[in-house]
Amino acid sequence: MNKDELKKILTDSDFQNLVKKVSSISLVFTAAILIIYYAFILLLAYGKEFLGQPLSEGSATTVGIPIGIGVIVAAWVLTGLYVYWANKNYDPMVKLLREKFRR
Amino acid sequence: MKTITYLWAGLLTISLPSLAGNEAIVGMNPVAVAFFLFFIAATLGITYWAAKRSRTATEFYAAGRSISGFQNGLALAGDYMSAASFLGIAGMVATKGYDGLIYSIGFLVGWPVIMFLIAEPLRNLGKYTFADVVAYRLQLKPIKILAALGSVAVVILYLIAQMVGSGKLIQLVFGIPYELAVVIIGALMITYVLFGGMLATTWVQIIKAVLLLGGATIMTIWTLAKFGFSPESLFQSVKETAGEKWLQPGGLVSNPIDAISLGLALMFGTAGLPHILMRFYTVPDAKEARKSVFFATGFIGYFYILTFVIGFGAVVLVGLEKITSIGKGGNMAAPLLAQALGGDAFLGFIAAVAFATILAVVAGLTLAGASALSHDLYVGVFRKGESSEEQEVKITRVAVLILGITAIVLGIAFKNQNIAFMVGLAFAIAASTNFPALLMSIVWKRFTTAGAVASMATGLFLSVVLIILSKTIWVDILGNPEPVFPYKNPAIVSMTLAFVVGIVVSLMTREPEAEEKFEEMKVRKYLGIGAE
């Protein structure tokens, strides 16, 4: 790839649009997992009673169990949503740009 | 290759009669031994097949980039779920209850971070190691030296922990002497990696992941069947036998700072583990890399939910007294539960699965360490990036041998040491040394060589020193009355400062060339144009 070709791609409005989209989506998803996980950690530190109470009157299952398993499931669901987004939006844009610049 | 196989058969025949040991919980378990031999035969067969396909550097380091996203997802899960996850977390749930789940959540949440920040750029920008990405637009030599140091430090610590843990496990389960167990594991992993490279390592990891997930699933269903498939009635029994404390968060998170520090190390350490990052080069493109993380997260998350049931099942069906009397920290909870469920035959199967688990992890670690020594240090630093393929693969094989033998020797040397802190330290180093430099090199235009070097050096130095000054080593091992550093995990200080130092030093220096290259790098990073 020579400098002119690179410049062409870098100044292309579709490419700049793609960079903006991908960066913001990855930021949003990263923020989501950070918030979920550290909310859980802070809940552990300051909300032990809440997590330790029975889920319903007389049950052995505590509130913390579904919440903990929920964090695991949430992590997986987030990766799934990202893959779904990327397959639907990121890949077609890449394909389009690569065709446009015959790469 | 053939001679190696014969040698193995010979060694095992000789060692089988000496297997009987009164310490073992299985002793001479025919199912375990049969399974064990079958696994070894199958993996050596794969190694023989892979050896023909491991000639070029790309084949040796990256399995010719021929692994699919789904296969790589399984292999990543196989690379990540160590014996520590299987035995350690099930044991923690058994002996501490809910706190074990907190640990496994920490081990899982690093994966989405890899997905959103690292996987695709890593695949598009690098060749064989994560150091390729850090050095992409910075000066090769200093970056490669430090990144290799960080990688080797993580790999060696992780390897020792695996070796010692597995030697003890095999000694306990099969009654083989500890030293022999370590030698067997070391020799097998050297064989896989030396001859079969990444291709053999990948398939060993895939088989192991299938075995481990299958074994854990059977155990979970079997356990739940005893409670009418109602988790509630399992928890009810736990409450009756161990007390309701088991179902509540306990002492693991007593200090929020400590909890956050551990959380940082687990979360961002995962995204800085060289053997995990290396796996992303085995898939053909960024799209498959992305798919791998989705599958890996699913498999690992599912597995951790299973270990939660297995740990509680052990509390009720085996009993706490028995669990804590055999093996420290409840590590034998899962094997003992297998025995309680399906007698010695099922125990033999689970023991063999644990053995396969260890092998897959140490093979991945050895390959990652060897690639840091040969691809990063030898080719990147001594040959300034100029080396023939044959030469590079040759050097890697030498590095595999050196690392493998080192792991065996250290595994034996650390036999009676408390190594519990080692995996924690490995994660702390990965989070403080590798992750900040890798992330900033991918996303920050103004990042400079001086900044990267300062960041990695700070992360490595601080994580090691602070661990030494913390309770685990300063008090428990060195016998001082009070720890100098108050937290169990150094990540909150060492990782934060690695970022701060990297940013400050980068702002104080200018590297116009690197900035210009960052712009050009975008095309490859987002479109994969020019990616290998």
From TrEMBL, chain A:
The chain crosses the membrane at residues 25-45, 65-85. It comes from the Bacteria. It holds the Pfam family DUF485. The keyword Transport does not apply. The keyword Calcium does not apply. Keywords: Membrane, Transmembrane, Transmembrane helix. This is DUF485 domain-containing protein. It comes from Persephonella atlantica. The lineage of its organism: Bacteria, Pseudomonadati, Aquificota, Aquificia, Aquificales.
Automatic annotation (TrEMBL), chain B:
NCBIfam families: PRK09395.1, sss. Keywords: Cell membrane, Ion transport, Membrane, Signal, Sodium, Symport, Transmembrane, Transmembrane helix, Transport. It holds the Pfam family SSF. Its main location: membrane. InterPro entries: Na/Glc_symporter_sf, Na/solute_symporter, Na/solute_symporter_CS, Sodium:Solute_Symporter. It is found in: Cell membrane. Belongs to the sodium:solute symporter (SSF) (TC 2.A.21) family. This is Sodium/solute symporter. The chain crosses the membrane at residues 30-51, 72-94, 100-119, 145-164, 170-194, 206-225, 259-281, 293-320, 345-374, 395-414, 420-443, 450-470, 490-508. It is a multi-pass membrane protein. The lineage of its organism: Bacteria, Pseudomonadati, Aquificota, Aquificia, Aquificales.
